[in-house]
Design brief:
By secondary structure, this protein is an alpha/beta fold. It contains 17 helices and eight strands. The two termini are about 15 Å apart. Bound molecules: adenine and zinc ion.
């Protein structure tokens, strides 16, 4: 199974680029900019990664971004993630970025996106991995700040496929951003939102995503299983759910393998992703492997999860068909073998 998962052609739909900042790169960039980090070594830094819920993770995640300052830093960040993803046989990735976490520190939107874009273009040519970008608004900032960020993105609209909503969900429901997402839709962006696991009012938040915002996808959304009507709507609309098992284990102490299996049995398009792999110490292969080793998911279930990701990806139908074909060929060849 290890080799089968490692070589399986995959898509990743839920990865925060800032969550791919590995400790080694943090130290390298800190040195470049003459910034003193709080930790002396990579090991010390890793020891500080003791998150137990979303806010305790987010504190460390935002603090670490202080080393991302110029265009080349964003290039390096993205290039290192894409190199790793390509090694893990990710053929296609949709990646989140958090512009407000940088513009609030005085780093220009343009600096961030140009660095990321340069790595995307190079990775497509040299690594054969294709990618698209999703701009995430920080939900613990104001709707006004999100709207200003949406407007700032418009000169770069051709580089962005959609918008999402992340950061601390407590007290920050989807409807806080109704107007921002309505406008984003008008601009032609696809829409997704985080409904993190076990958040206060999670069922109301998922309901708002489906019935007020009209999202194209939900990030996490595991708690939808508690309400048959939500499950039915998600299944009927064929909406993707981007689940991040190892991230869930960090923030809610549960890999949610049973929940993922149940979603598959209900015809919900669950997918498996890494979220913040440098922090949770697991890229997409390790997430799939954990579901098999610890959650008991079968080879067919793993293939279904990967197939779902290609099905719900924001791709044109020709590219989608070619990825699905590559997956099918791999599965057939391994079945024959
Ligand atoms: N930002 C980065 N990772 C996140 C997550 N899992 N939930 C909310 N915001 C995030
Ligand atoms: Zn996330």
């Amino acid at each position: 199974m290890n080799d089968f998962i490692a070589n399986l052609p995959k898509a990743e739909l839920h990865v925060h680029l800032e969550g791919t900042l590995e400790p080694e790169l943090s130290f390298e960039l800190a040195k470049k900019h003459g910034i003193e980090l709080e930790y002396a070594t990579v090991e010390d830094l890793l020891r500080a990664y003791d998150f137990h819920d979303l806010p305790s993770f987010l504190r460390i995640y935002y603090k670490a971004m202080s080393v991302l300052l110029d265009e080349d830093d964003f290039f390096q960040l993205t290039w290192q993630y894409l190199s790793k993803a390509a090694q893990q046989r990710v053929l296609y990735a949709e990646m989140f970025f958090d512009p407000q976490a940088h513009t609030s520190r005085g780093v220009a939107f343009e600096t961030v996106i140009r660095g990321i874009r340069r790595a995307q273009e190079r990775a497509s040519l040299e690594l054969g991995i294709d990618t698209q970008l999703i701009l995430c608004f920080l939900r613990d900032l104001s709707a006004q700040s999100a709207m200003a960020t949406l407007e700032e993105s418009i000169p770069f609209k051709h580089w962005i496929v959609g918008v999402g909503l992340d950061s601390d969900e407590k007290g920050n429901p989807p409807v806080k951003f109704s107007e921002v997402f309505r406008k984003a839709r008008q601009y032609g962006y696809r829409l997704t939102m985080h409904c993190d696991v076990n958040q206060e009012n999670t069922l109301a938040h998922i309901h708002q995503c489906l019935h007020t915002i009209g999202v194209d996808r939900i990030d996490h959304g595991v708690n939808s299983l508690e309400d048959p009507a939500l499950c039915a709507t998600i299944a009927e609309r064929g909406l993707g759910l981007t689940i991040c098992p190892v991230s869930n284990r960090f923030v809610v102490q549960n890999l949610t393998a049973a929940e993922i299996r149940r979603m598959l049995s209900l015809g919900m398009r669950a997918t498996v992703n890494s979220d913040d792999p440098a922090y949770f110490r697991a890229y997409v292969n390790e997430n799939l492997q954990a579901l098999h080793d610890e959650g008991g998911l079968t080879r067919d279930e793993i293939v279904q999860l990967v197939s779902n990701a290609f099905t719900v990806a924001w791709l044109d139908e020709t590219r989608r068909a070619s990825y699905v074909q590559r997956l099918q060929t791999y599965v057939d060849r391994n079945r024959a073998a």
